[in-house]
Design goal:
With 214 residues, the chain is an alpha+beta fold. The chain is 62% helix and 13% strand.
Length: 214
């Protein structure tokens, strides 16, 4: 075997090793990303909001962010490009349907998880420690989200709009009577009320009712 042939085989072997190593990293990072998003949507988001129509959107956004950031991470300009891409996608809104604040929060979460899973690096450490660090970070995100969704530390306040016809109860000094009447009608523990537009023709006032969610 000539020196030239030996050099060619060495280079080919090196390229083959780098390719397999990249596939190895892609597989594990994608697995951690997918499991995290699945737990977030199926066991935290869905039991609370019952919206399965957004699952496709959440998963696709997550995968797009993950794959683009992972591929960009193979080149020198990856970090800046990934964060720029992250900022662009985090500001996107669908024009055909308005998303609620909670849905936008979960969209932001799945984008963040995809970014973390794709570009997180630990210098001078084996790959297994990188995977463990990603798993720990994603688990922390899931734990914090779960704690706040379950109202462990505080009761979450809900809001509803009500058209109310008893205009005499919105007068100063009638606060307790108003709260008691709303409580009986709505069957919820009303905390406070804000008065909106008053329609004297229809004898109605628009009330913003605040209550503790169960």
């Amino acid at each position: 075997m000539t020196t030239l042939q030996a050099g060619i085989e060495t280079v080919a072997g090196s390229d083959h090793y780098e390719f397999l190593k990249t596939l190895y990293k892609l597989g594990w990072r994608l697995f951690l990303d997918f499991i995290t998003v699945l737990v977030l949507l199926r066991f935290i988001y869905y039991p609370k909001y019952k919206h399965n129509d957004l699952f496709f959107t959440f998963f696709i956004f997550n995968l797009i962010i993950f794959f683009i950031c992972f591929l960009l991470n193979r080149i020198e300009m990856s970090l800046g490009a990934a964060f720029g891409l992250f900022a662009v996608f985090s500001m996107l809104r669908y024009r055909t349907e308005d998303l609620s604040i909670k849905d936008m929060t979960y969209l932001f979460l799945v984008i963040a998880i995809g970014l973390i899973s794709a570009v997180t690096k630990l210098k001078n450490t084996p790959d297994v420690y990188e995977f463990l660090f990603i798993a720990a970070t994603n688990t922390m995100l899931l734990l914090v989200t779960y704690i706040f969704e379950k109202n462990v530390f505080f009761k979450r306040e809900g809001v509803m709009m009500v058209n109310y016809e008893k205009l005499d109860l919105i007068l100063p000094g009638k606060d307790q009577e108003l709260l008691q009447d709303l409580k009986q009608r709505l069957g919820i523990s009303v905390k406070r009320v804000k008065t909106g537009k008053i329609d004297f023709v229809k004898s109605q006032v628009q009330l913003k009712v605040y209550f503790d969610e169960v």
